[in-house]
Write a structure and sequence with these properties.
Elements lengths: L6 H18 L2 H7 L13 H4 L7 H22 L1 H36 L4 H9 L10 H9 L6 H14 L4 E4 L2 E6 H18 L10 H18 L10
Antiparallel strand pairs: 1-2
Helix pairs in contact: 1-4, 4-5, 4-8, 5-7, 5-8, 5-10, 8-10, 9-10
Length: 240
């Protein structure tokens, strides 16, 4: 049995520490570590990484950390800590880049639509800076939401882990709280991703509001691509 530090437990401890530290420090840590839209004054390139350690509430933290422990422990046992951490962080950063790119495309489309309606770029920029929108104009609120709302959470990285788990253990039975029927991972995970994609495109989500569905999709894509890249070496005791 290979020796490794328990990276999953370390990640859980760091996430818990940062969450409770952020609660005592008010909005200062949130503004520094959460992932803001690139045109927002609070944005920093490091946030593509640090957002993974921020969470929006105790339930959010517990759900993500439980999923990390449940699926990540098995992968770390096979891969070792180093490979697992590389996979985890690449999935998380990839999810953030994917999410930000989708938001950027949506922002530019809506911004140009509003300009075509007669609102000047200066007026739009002023409304965004002052956290105001035009109630009578469709999509004005969505533009403000993209600009002002930061993304937090390890979900993107965990979706990468979930996909990797499905590739490694396709016949393992999984279930959701609201759908407690065990289903093989090779069917369960694609179905879950389909729900996320549907929610991201339509805005209708059974998971509740304020969920970064495209971050989930992005993490899953990166996780799948990494698994395809590593598929010939995953079970070897190499020097990766």
């Amino acid at each position: 049995m290979r020796n490794y530090i328990n990276a999953v437990n370390v990640l859980i401890a760091i996430n818990a520490f940062i969450y409770f530290a952020s609660q005592s420090a008010g909005g200062q840590i949130l503004n520094s570590l959460a992932l803001y839209f690139p045109k927002n004054e609070n944005f920093g390139i490091w946030q593509l990484f640090t957002h993974m350690f921020m969470h929006g509430g105790v339930a959010h933290l517990l759900f993500n950390m439980f999923a990390l422990w449940m699926f990540g422990t098995q992968l770390e046992r096979i891969w070792g800590s180093r490979r697992f951490l590389i996979f985890y962080f690449l999935s998380g950063v990839g999810a953030a880049i994917f999410y930000t790119t989708i938001n950027y495309v949506q922002f530019e489309r809506i911004f140009n639509e509003l300009v075509s309606l007669g609102i000047t770029p200066a007026e739009l920029q002023s409304s965004l800076s002052e956290s105001k929108y035009f109630p009578s104009i469709e999509n004005s609120e969505k533009l403000l939401r993209i600009f002002q709302t930061p993304m937090v959470g390890a979900s993107g990285a965990i979706y990468g882990v979930l996909v990797a788990f499905g590739v490694m253990f396709p016949n393992t039975k999984l279930a959701l709280i609201f759908f407690p029927v065990p289903v093989a991972a090779k069917y369960f995970i694609p179905a879950l991703l389909t729900l996320d994609l549907f929610a991201g495109v339509t805005g209708f989500s059974i998971f509740g509001g304020s969920v970064a569905h495209f971050a989930h999709i992005g993490g899953a894509i990166i996780g799948f691509l990494l698994m395809m890249y590593w598929r010939n070496t995953l079970l070897r005791n190499d020097n990766f």
